[in-house]
Specification:
Helix content: 40-55%
CATH architecture of the largest domain: 3-Layer(aba) Sandwich
Number of helices: 15
Distance between the termini: 47 Å
Number of domains: 3
Shape: elongated
Radius of gyration: 24 Å
Oligomer: single chain
Length: 306
Amino acid sequence: MSTPTLPGSIDDALELLEAGDYLAGRALATVVFLSLKMGRSLFLEGEAGVGKTEIAKVLAAGLGRRLIRLQCYEGLDVASAVYEWNYAAQMIEIRLAEAQGAADRARLGEDVFSERFLIKRALLEALETDAAGPPVLLIDELDRADEAFEAFLLEVLADFQITIPEIGTVRADEPPIVVITSNRTREIHDALKRRCLYHWVGYPDVERELAIVKRKVPDAAEALSRQLVHFVQRIRAEDVFKAPGVAETLDWAAALSELDAVALDPAIASDTLGVILKYQDDIDRFQKSRIKELIDEVDAELRVSA
């Protein structure tokens, strides 16, 4: 079975994403195509739940590449993201050497700090190319990591190499496909952004979000899908602490489908509001009377557009 080739045009990039059930706009497909064509990292910024992470997954699946995911968090360090030594195995090796009377300390030091005792983490693994080609490296939610770790990434993204003091510099024979995401809880430094192609992933419009629901939750009733998409779009326009993302829209469609709902009504919307809103203060804003108003507005809009 042949390995899929990189898209040769923007239209090919659109087809690649759509084949993975990712319905992208042309602007996103363009920056994905350029990132692959130019070998530049792709930096995706946007609210949580808009589908940034999914792009890396779709690229890996569509191109037949290994997906390596580094989930960022506060306190992420080199040992967790790049490599660490297997100290337990090293100690066993030293004890065995001592028991056998080995006296060459220099050689023993070289042995225990060899690659067989190296535990490779995501960034080091991403520098290895297999038969399918270089992997897709997803550095997810970089804004959650500390600025010190962000600075460490500069060497990786600039030269696709990592320096291990005991071994030397490890370089990628062929650069990985890098996708970096950020929810913008803090600003990412310009030095890192300059090494990437940038794209803001926003909320989809009604038509695209409805198409996504139909693709991802095909069992949901047509009328229900239209209602809930318009309802979610109106929720996003409200003054809420955390607006629902596309992921929440899909969860809601799946939940209502499981409840055999064929239309959105105030009672069922109120009972399941926690599927799309994740903060109690936001939920408290929408009493049944307000939910009914929004549903009435949605139904009126749908009747006009029908």
